[in-house]
Amino acid sequence: MQLDHDNLRALAAVVREGSFERAAAALHVTPSAVSQRIKTLESRMGRLLVLRTLPAQPTDDGRILVRLAEQAALLEQEALDHLGMGEDRPAPSLRIAVNHDSLETWFIEAATRYAEQTRTTLDLISEDQDHTAALLRNGSVLAAVTTLGDPVQGCRVHALGRMRYVATCAPAFHARHFARGVTPEALENAPVLVFNRKDALQAQFARQVMGDTPWQPPTWWVPSSHAFVSATLAGLGWTMNPLPMVREALDDGRLVPLRARAWHDVPLYWQHWRTGSHTMERLTSAVLQAARALVRPARVPAPPTATAAGAGALSRPGAGGSGSSPA
């Protein structure tokens, strides 16, 4: 059986753009042409490939063909570039899933390194690090920064290192809520900042203190990495902040750790489909180089006394990069 490339491109565009109308605009054809191509492909395959929802979603069978279409487009562009015939057509954009904090800290360096070697761009999907692998499995992306160390079937995996998160708060907040220590009672009553419903870092830290005791503190939901830090600095609550984003604030005493060893290291991995693509090899090399910033500090300072917290005094965290040591 032979598959028509235009039909495969239409399927991939519908899934990528989320609707037949936006897919038509991306492909510079009419929505009816996109619809006809999908119907033809479904008829030839004898199965439903895309759910006509908002946004449009691929079926399990559709995901396999979307992945094929994305990989074929990448390899086709590489072949045309090698033959000197690719300049008259737009380069494909690789869909990559990256966790929020990596995107806000070290991953843009990887993108910059990659841009120096190719005209192919990146379509970055921001997602929680524990959920990026799902996008890789269902064919939504070609590669992902993830916490999953076991390779997704058909993928290669590279250990990147560990992102260090530190339980932090403003000095005045610490003096108000944790002057007598980080106890179960204090954690139960102290407001906490949580990125979204997928963010479990704060609960993991609290479990170290609370054990199996239910934890239902006052919660601020703040779905922005930079606003997350700003809200911590403003004293709205305590939270687990990525060390690269709060190192300066810890250095100058605007933030303090909740207690000694108030950190949690999250291992990160780079997984990508085995495409045999030079473009993917270049991106992988750029990611691995940029991930060298994930270096474990020697130590994180102990929490201050109530007096020191009020004065904002804090010793400097241990020297090192912007995260934690490579795995």
* CATH C-level of the largest domain: Alpha Beta
CATH architecture of the largest domain: 3-Layer(aba) Sandwich
Compute the number of strand runs. 11
Order of helices and strands: HHHEEHEHHEHEEHHEHEHEHEEHH
What does the radius of gyration come to? 23 Å
Give the termini distance in whole angstroms.
44 Å
Q: Give the CA-based shape.
A: elongated
Q: What is the helix fraction of residues, given as a range? A: 40-55%
Unreliable stretches: 296-301, 305-327
Number of domains: 2
Class of secondary structure makeup: alpha/beta
- CATH fold label of the largest domain: D-Maltodextrin-Binding Protein, domain 2
Count of helical segments? Answer: 14
How many strands, what sense, and barrel or not for the largest sheet? 7 strands, mixed
Overall mean confidence score, pLDDT: 85
What brief labels describe this structure?
single chain, 327 residues, Arc Repressor Mutant, subunit A, D-Maltodextrin-Binding Protein, domain 2, 2 domains, seven-stranded mixed beta sheet, two-stranded antiparallel sheet, 11 strands, elongated, disordered C terminus, WH_DNA-bd_sf
